[in-house]
Amino acid sequence: MDNPESRVTDEVRQTADAIGTMEIRGAATIADAAAKALRTQAEQSSAETADELRAELRAAARVLHDTRPTAVSLPNALRYVLFDADGATVEDVRASVVTSVVEFCDRLENAQTDLGRVGANRLRDGDTIMTHCHSTDVLACVEAAVEQGKDLTAIVKETRPRLQGHITARELVEMGVDVTLIVDSAARRYMNDVDHVLVGADSIAADGSVINKIGTSGLAVTARDRGTPIVCAAQTIKLHPDTLTGHTVDIEMREESEVIDPDEADEIGDITVKNPAFDVTPPRYVDAIVTERGQYPPESIVTLMRDLFGEGTTEPWVVE
Fold this sequence. Notes:
The chain contains eleven helices and ten strands. The protein is of the alpha/beta class. The two termini are 14 Å apart. Keywords: Carbohydrate metabolism, Initiation factor, Isomerase, Protein biosynthesis.
């Protein structure tokens, strides 16, 4: 058999490119796209044996996995699909993958709705929220609260350098929420007007630390200083099972050009540009983590994680 990497489909590579460039963004959207890309690999494969197909699927998973190292929903999706890629024949493996992908995507679709209902219970009629970046889980909480008849207003941080807060602002306006857009550095100025800070997560560690868009940790410190509750809305696909065994979360570093145009940098002179995509908020600054399974204090996340993943985990895409 030739190299499995050479058999990775164009559709898988296109999905990987879209995830890497953030054309596909948001943990649930990334997980959905990754799972469906593995289904495409299985359906289009010309492998002659079950082992050959499994090798191709692992190769496709590696291509997808390497795009966004901090977005843990991506490897969680790959784990879900590959752990059940059993069977003695190609058709058995293919059918197993298709079934797993359908189940996984159905769970994703229902999880956000359930999470929204849980998060909406924290919001009261007349509350003002502050948001950071763009989180579909946060928006699900707000949407559920609005559907309950609660009148909410939002102060939205624009979230540089990619300005994802503009997406959040637009979607909140479409829900009928009164929105004020602010620059990131104005968060403290407006914190006294805020009842809840709502943030999403790209991953959550076993100790309850929240890994989210850069600037989240500073916002959490400001919120704690002003006595404003900070709530993280995150589906369980964002729990980071590797941290159960002491694995540290890899913080993605993005292109310098997102921060400054290369020509402008040349005009300034000899500078180094750093563009970390995420930071880590310690659990002591987080009041609650809302999931589709309920609301948890950060220190209880380890129990939920063990229930879902056991004491440890493996990465099937590295198994040869």
